[in-house]
Specification:
Pfam families: Lipase (PF00151), PLAT (PF01477). The structure is a single chain. By secondary structure, this protein is of the alpha/beta class. The protein folds into 2 domains: 1-165, Rossmann fold; 167-253, Lipoxygenase-1 (Sandwich), CATH 2.60.60. Helix content is 15%, strand content 30%. The strands form 3 sheets. A 5-stranded mixed beta sheet has the order 1-2-3-5-4. Strands 7, 8, 9 and 11 form a 4-stranded antiparallel beta sheet that branches. Helix 1 (38-41) links the parallel strand 2 and strand 3 (53-57). The protein is elongated and about 70 Å long.
Length: 257
């Protein structure tokens, strides 16, 4: 039984007979997309974990792409009716859009077990455990017999619009060169199944010998990594023509470690 952002008003905090609960089926998975408090934030979705596994994409409260300006959303590519509806309840309705995307992307929407969204964003719950990460949506029931604890909260990020799934990587760059400069470092991944755009690893003071780490949520599952593109720029013309390189770049794939 899949709960698509089950309702908060009149249901949150009520007895289990009244609302969705994991006692309702052999396996209950829940996608929370609008669980900010109804008062004053007008959140429509229930906040607490109520299933066997509960997914909190983007933290479960504010979905990317739902903060577009009202005009652009109401005159939506899918038509004025769909756009108006999205404007009124965009976060709430993301749950079924993620679910429908998950049918197509059987390898997507990996939910990382974590105590909170802040810890997930900071990389504390990366990579997936040895047994892997459950997939939010249609394929969540692959985990029916693998659960080890009563409450499993899972976090992930999604794109702003269709196609929604993203794949998480940890990228660590150690710089080489002769002198420190200011600027930014970008990295793109190339693999057997596709390439990513450039992602910024760090900006500010770039010091040879220093190591910089970031987590990226890529729009493509690149498969086996074949090449990494490294680019740095200091945004202005420097007459000393500083040179900077990457001594090493390490890429860790969240899905399979």
């Amino acid at each position: 039984l899949s709960g698509l952002d089950p309702a908060q008003p009149y249901f949150q905090g009520t007895p289990t007979e009244v609302r969705l609960d994991k006692s309702d089926a052999d396996f209950v998975d829940v996608i929370h997309t609008d669980c900010a408090p109804t008062i004053p934030y007008l959140g429509f979705g229930i906040g607490p974990a109520i299933g066997h596994i509960d997914f909190y994409p983007n933290g479960g409260e504010q979905m990317p792409g739902c903060d577009k300006n009202p005009v652009s959303q109401i005159v939506d590519i899918d038509g004025i009716w769909e756009g108006t509806r999205d404007f009124v309840a965009c976060n709430h309705l993301r749950s079924y859009k993620y679910y429908s995307d998950s049918i197509v992307y059987s390898d997507g929407f990996l939910g990382y077990p974590c105590a909170s969204y802040d810890l997930f964003q900071a990389g504390n719950c990366f990579p997936c455990p040895e047994e892997g990460c459950p997939n939010m949506g249609h394929y969540a029931d692959r985990w029916k017999d693998k659960l080890k604890s009563d409450v499993v909260k899972l976090y992930l990020n999604t794109a702003e619009n269709k196609d929604f799934p993203l794949w998480r990587y940890k990228i660590t760059v150690t710089l080489s060169g002769k002198s420190k400069v200011r600027g930014y470092v970008n990295v793109a991944l190339y693999g057997s199944d596709g390439n990513t755009k450039q992602y910024q690893i760090t900006k500010g003071t770039l010091k040879p010998g220093n190591t910089y780490t970031t987590y990226i949520d890529a729009e493509v599952n690149v498969g086996d990594i074949t090449k990494v593109k490294f680019l740095w720029n200091n945004n202005w013309v420097n007459p000393t023509l500083p040179k900077l390189g990457a001594a090493t770049i390490t890429v860790e794939v969240g899905e399979n470690r």
